[in-house]
Structures are given as C-alpha cells and as structure tokens.
Amino acid sequence: MLVDFSKLPDHARVWIYQANRKLSDDEVASIKDQTAAFLTQWTAHGANLEAGFEIKYNRFIIIGLNQDNASASGCSIDASVHFIQDLEKQFNIDLLDKMNVTFYTGEFIAHKPLSDFRKMAKAKSVSPKTVVFNNLVNTKIDYLENWEVPAKDSWHSRFLA
Q: Which of 4, 8, 65, 104 has the fewest Cβ atoms surrounding its Cβ within 10 A?
C-alpha cells in the first residue's frame, strides 16, 4: 500500500539507494512512476506493506516501510532488490554498490569509489567537515536527522586523518 513518505512514522525502516550519476528529470519521473507502482503491490506473506518513497537530488531513491502493520519478509525484501536491479538495467545506473561514497563538493554532489575517497582524505581534499551522505541510516528519523552529516559524524570518519 503506497502512502506519502511524510506520513510514515519516524521509526519506519528505510533503504537508501544512491545512483552513480545524477538522473535526468525524465528518468526521475519514470522512476517515480515505477516505484509507486511497485510499492502499491508490495506485500509480505500476502499482507500489504505500508510504504512510501522519495527521490532526492535526482540521485537517491529512499524507500520507507511502516513495520507496525506488517514487516518486510525475506521474499518481500528480495522483491524490492529485484525491482532496484531492474531500474539499474533500465537506466544503466548503479544503485546497489555500497563501496561508493557520495558527498558535497561545494554546492555539487560528488560520487566516488571508496578507494578514491580514502585517497582524497589522505590528500586532505575532503575534511571532517565535508558533508557526506550516510546511507547506512535505517529509520526515517535517522534519515531526516543523520543522513547529510559532516564526515566526522558518520562511518566515513575512519578514513580521515
């Protein structure tokens, strides 16, 4: 059951998928339509899942799930991963590689392999104040409050000197 993302409770589970490039407005419109269609029919053991989504900065797909009524099962999580894999193929993007880092460089969003981010940290090209996207947050409230944070306040801090 598709609901407005803003209506999900703060403790809703979230999954964040970052694209390896900025998506065009047409791609975002298509992804919105397809994600809405997927979430409308998303179930776990026959029970409708109350889920919503947002797309941020033409780069991130955030899916939220209210687990109060029904939780995602192994099969429903598999279905969501298959859906994301289908988007990857359709738009020739990478959404599932967790070995990439996305962060602000001025007003722009950069996407780099983790190995490059490490090199940038050693070279002081990124600092503890560099705002990164912490895609490991797993509740809506964490997403709202701790997703865009200085590198020193996220798992990225381990790479800073």
A: 4
Q: What is the CA radius of gyration of the chain?
A: 16
Sequence-separated (6 or more) residues with CB below 8 Å from residue 43: 49, 76
Q: How is residue 130 written in tokens?
A: 């560099």
pLDDT in tens, 87-131: 999 999 999 998 899 999 989 999 999 999 999 999 999 999 999
Gap between the terminal Cα atoms of the chain:
46
Question: Quick one: 16 exposed, middle or buried, by C-beta within 10 A (0-12, 13-18, 19+)?
Answer: buried
| Residue 139 DSSP class | B
Angle between helices 25-41 and 74-91 (to 10 degrees): 160
